[in-house]
Amino acid sequence: MFEEAQRLQKVIAQAGLASRRGAEELISSGRVQVNGVTVTALGTKVEQNDTVAVDGAPIEGREKLVYYVLNKPRGVVTTNDDDKGRKTVLDLLDEVDQRVYPVGRLDYDTTGVLLLTNDGEMANQLMHPKSRVDKVYVAKVEGVASDDKLAPLKRGVVIKGRKTAPARVAIERIDKAKKTSMIRLVIHEGRNHQVKNMLQKVGLPVSKLTREQYAFLDLTGLQSGDYRKLTGAEVRRLKSGDYKGYRRK
């Protein structure tokens, strides 16, 4: 079944059933069987001919790991299922056979770069705060921006009792007649509504928001709603922890 002896939690994660940490929880809670025997030891390794099952359902073979980058449009939710019947990002991946999951989230009305994969281990790695993956946003805001107004974002602002990490921020354009501005913001955190909350904190409410870059992945060649497979080199680079690639504009 497996090419070489591997840790049980890695096999479960690579099958797309859970992240590595989630797989460890499945094992610890007694929900995993190897050759019909329940296993709870996290150090367990499985061989090529071993049969692994989760909740009694065998993993017939590791699902092929796939990686896609999507240009998420407005009006689409970043989830696998929506109880309100709204279109989800998975509805856009009409030619993808594997069940993939979004890495992080983008708000319903936020557009831009979204990574989707069934590689739970890599997704967990990318979303872990220690990875410090740069996310580049461009926001249209209400109000005339200035360096003084944006300065607190470079130091960090307190939102819901927690201070944000220092952001890189720059003014792209100002329309004094319409009293709007375009702001470029680079962060590596991933709190809920973080960019909107940060700009609201300095008196510049967001009217339109796009994530132009995630790590080194951008929107090149992707119209709204389009997606593509990551290249082998891109996948290896992400797995190696080489996330750099922000292009200053």
TrEMBL record:
One of its GO terms (biological process) is enzyme-directed rRNA pseudouridine synthesis. GO terms for molecular function: RNA binding; rRNA pseudouridine synthase activity. InterPro entries: PsdUridine_s_RsuA/RluB/E/F_cat, PsdUridine_synth_cat_dom_sf, PsdUridine_synth_RsuA/RluA, PsdUridine_synth_RsuA/RluB/E/F, PsdUridine_synth_RsuA/RluB_CS, RsuA_PseudoU_synthase, S4_RNA-bd, S4_RNA-bd_sf. Its EC number is 5.4.99.-. Residues 6-69 form the RNA-binding S4 domain. Pfam families: PseudoU_synth_2, S4. It is an enzyme of class 5 (isomerase). PROSITE patterns: PSI_RSU, S4. Keywords: Isomerase, RNA-binding. GO terms for cellular component: cytosol. Belongs to the pseudouridine synthase RsuA family. This is Pseudouridine synthase. Coiled coil: none annotated.
